[in-house]
Write a structure and sequence with these properties.
The protein is of the alpha/beta class. The protein has 7 helices and 5 strands. The protein has a 5-stranded mixed sheet with strand order 2-1-3-4-5. Helix 4 links the parallel strand 3 (78-81) and strand 4 (100-103). Helix 6 packs across helix 7.
Length: 160
């Protein structure tokens, strides 16, 4: 698989950021994601919908994956997410053989992307200032909801 250039990675991240903004406007957690095919086709996009749907499994990566529908193979696909993927979403990437993850930021939350890299998934960490600012603002305004989302009920800091 060919490496992704910065322009393409940032263009694809814009799709995920748009989803995160929409989620924030809906009163949800501002995390967005998109799944791109090996040929660069947008397969699916989504946002964290845990609050909106009352469903703890509706993480951004999960909604983007579901929106993509069934694929014969996920080899060569790229999951783009505004925030480092949690263990749940990292497991999804590994389970289905998604080849690359483009991450907007890992400052607010450092999820499972090191584990993914250790298992052969290409990781592209962009350190995007807008992604960092959006999450920092959300965490400051809604610490209880953030702690619920990351599973941090006892200071464990498990997953978003």
């Amino acid at each position: 698989m060919e490496s992704i250039d910065q322009l393409t990675a940032r263009t694809w991240l814009a799709t995920a950021v748009a989803e995160a903004r929409t989620g924030r406007e809906e009163g949800g957690i501002p995390i967005g994601a998109a799944l791109y095919g090996a040929d660069g086709t947008l397969l699916g996009r989504g946002r964290n919908r845990r609050v909106q749907d009352g469903d703890p499994s509706m993480h951004a990566e999960t909604t983007a994956f579901r929106a993509a529908g069934r694929q014969r193979s996920y080899r060569g696909t790229t999951m783009v997410t505004t925030l480092s993927p949690c263990w749940y979403c990292s497991g999804l990437v590994r389970q289905f053989g998604i080849s690359r993850v483009v991450i907007g930021e890992a400052v607010t939350f450092h999820g499972g992307h090191d584990w993914l890299a250790a298992h052969g998934v290409e990781i592209v960490l962009l350190d995007d200032p807008e992604c960092v600012a959006m999450m920092r603002e959300f965490v400051a305004r809604h610490p209880q909801l953030w702690n619920e989302d990351i599973g941090d009920r006892a200071g464990e800091g498990r997953c978003p």
